[in-house]
Every structure is written in structure tokens, then in C-alpha cells.
């Protein structure tokens, strides 16, 4: 059965795009992403020539420039994976909650993962990458349930405004809890504070290999949930009337989003606003059909984090700004614009 998109609210245009336009935008996004990957490998504290870049991609490490490229390869791969995970997670969370402000950071999910990791390191001595990832995913899942329950209290249920406020309050509280857990531990305080900024510097293929299965499973679940999200966009009653198991569809999509957000936070720290900015921009390109929106959000999220990493290397040479700082500078004004434009309506 083919489902029609939800009816627009008064004064709100529903973006529809023919398939050929979507395919054209797909080619554009892939081309831009390829250019960003090349820039990520070539740009940094040391400029890399094209000859050294191609030689390093072939496995050569004969000089300093080629060795620099070899170190940037896992960093670039991690930026792509983390960006794709956060962009896809944000799109799914917005679809599940029908909340234009939904995002792993704004809803407190990434901060819940951060608190779980901080507690695990400080109190239980976890240091292995796999333990980090499992701890972060459990923390993200518990926080997501908590925020949704708090946002559902009172009349009207889980409205976008109540969810955003519950997420913001939870994030603020968890930041204080993290400080309370970490500050008495001088041996880990510096490393945890650095990780909390959010970045992909110092990435290695060992951490990528550890998190890749979790991100792959989360991505598969989210993409399989695309049709269910299209049904949820019609409203719970109409979706149920069309045969959709609303609770199952929402729980399945949420599971995928939590896996992606928790895994990305474990390896890169809490990077904010990627999951907010990317889905809104992708809706302008491909419309509201989640079968197109979700893959585009993954590609655009990968591009945003990779671009932010490149910008962070350039603006503070020879030092670097972490990705989390750049995305906050981009995302905070966008968040204000969304609030003013959407008036915190449901999607």
C-alpha cells in the first residue's frame, strides 16, 4: 500500500520532489562528499601535494607528508561514520516524535550516553572500547525513555515543546552530574573533559572496528523503519487504521536511533546539532518521504561532520578546534531559526 504524505497544516507547504530531482540531488551530495573526503585528507597543519596524497592512498609512507595522510585516513573515516550516524539518528527521532526540534543532543540522549561513560570510567574502571560502546548505548537508551516519559506527563501528551524542555533540562542536569563524578578523579578528569567536547582527532581503526557493527545494525534498523515512519507521520490513529502497529514501529525506529547515537557518542564524544540541522536541510532537497530522507540525512550528516573537522583544522592553525565546537557554532543559530519558523509545531 502506498501511503500519502501527511496533510499540511495551514500555511505550511509540503515539499514534494519527483524522482529525477531526488536522483540529481543524490549525485550532487555524493560529489560534494567526495570533495570533502579529499579535503580532509589533504588539509591540515601540513599541506599535502596531490602526488603525496595519491601515493599515501596507495600505502606509501616514504616522507612526512605521506605519513600525515596515513594518519588522516582513520580520522576521515570516523568523521564520515559519526556524521552519518548522527544525521540518520536525528531524522529518525524527528519522525518518531513528530518533533522538529528532536535531535540526540537536544533530547538529552548524547548527554545520557556521556554520563554513563563517565560513571563507568570513574566508578567501574571501564577502558576497553567495546565496554565504552555498550555503556554509552545503555545510557542513551535509558535517557531516551526517561525524557519521553517526562515529556508525556500532563495534558496533551508528548508535545514537541514538552519534549524539548524535558531534554534540555535532562542535559543540563547530566552535565552537572558528569562534573560531580569526574572532578574528584584527577587522573581521568582531563581526558574526560577533552572527550566531552566532541571530536574525531586521534581516531584509529581499532575504535572504528569496534563501533562499526553497532552502527551497521542501527543503520539497518532505521532504514527498515522508513515505511513505518511514513505511517506515523499521518498520526497514530490513521496509522493504526491502515494496519500499522504504532507502538512496534515507534519502538523499532527508536532502537535504531539509540544505537546510532550511543555508538557515535562512545567513539567521538557528544557532538551536538548534527541530527537537528541535517534532516531539515534534507527535507528541502528530497521532501518528507523517509525512504529518501533517511539515506540523504546519513550522507549529509557525514558531509557536515567531515566539513566541520576540516574547518576546525584551518581556522586555528597550527592548533585545532574540535568538531563539537564547529557544529555548535553552526547549529545554535539554526536551532533558533527552527524555533521561530516552526513555532514548535509537530511535523
UniProtKB/TrEMBL annotation:
<keyword id="KW-0812">Transmembrane</keyword>
<comment type="similarity">
    <text>Belongs to the binding-protein-dependent transport system permease family. FecCD subfamily.</text>
</comment>
<feature type="transmembrane region" description="Helical">
    <location>
        <begin position="323"/>
        <end position="340"/>
    </location>
</feature>
<feature type="transmembrane region" description="Helical">
    <location>
        <begin position="163"/>
        <end position="183"/>
    </location>
</feature>
<keyword id="KW-0472">Membrane</keyword>
<feature type="transmembrane region" description="Helical">
    <location>
        <begin position="203"/>
        <end position="226"/>
    </location>
</feature>
<keyword id="KW-1133">Transmembrane helix</keyword>
<dbReference type="GO" id="GO:0022857">
    <property type="term" value="F:transmembrane transporter activity"/>
</dbReference>
<dbReference type="GO" id="GO:0033214">
    <property type="term" value="P:siderophore-iron import into cell"/>
</dbReference>
<protein>
    <submittedName>
        <fullName>ABC transporter permease</fullName>
    </submittedName>
</protein>
<keyword id="KW-1003">Cell membrane</keyword>
<feature type="transmembrane region" description="Helical">
    <location>
        <begin position="132"/>
        <end position="151"/>
    </location>
</feature>
<dbReference type="GO" id="GO:0005886">
    <property type="term" value="C:plasma membrane"/>
</dbReference>
<feature type="transmembrane region" description="Helical">
    <location>
        <begin position="247"/>
        <end position="272"/>
    </location>
</feature>
<dbReference type="InterPro" id="IPR000522">
    <property type="entry name" value="ABC_transptr_permease_BtuC"/>
</dbReference>
<feature type="transmembrane region" description="Helical">
    <location>
        <begin position="73"/>
        <end position="93"/>
    </location>
</feature>
<dbReference type="InterPro" id="IPR037294">
    <property type="entry name" value="ABC_BtuC-like"/>
</dbReference>
<dbReference type="Pfam" id="PF01032">
    <property type="entry name" value="FecCD"/>
</dbReference>
<feature type="transmembrane region" description="Helical">
    <location>
        <begin position="105"/>
        <end position="126"/>
    </location>
</feature>
<keyword id="KW-0813">Transport</keyword>
<feature type="transmembrane region" description="Helical">
    <location>
        <begin position="23"/>
        <end position="43"/>
    </location>
</feature>
<feature type="transmembrane region" description="Helical">
    <location>
        <begin position="292"/>
        <end position="311"/>
    </location>
</feature>
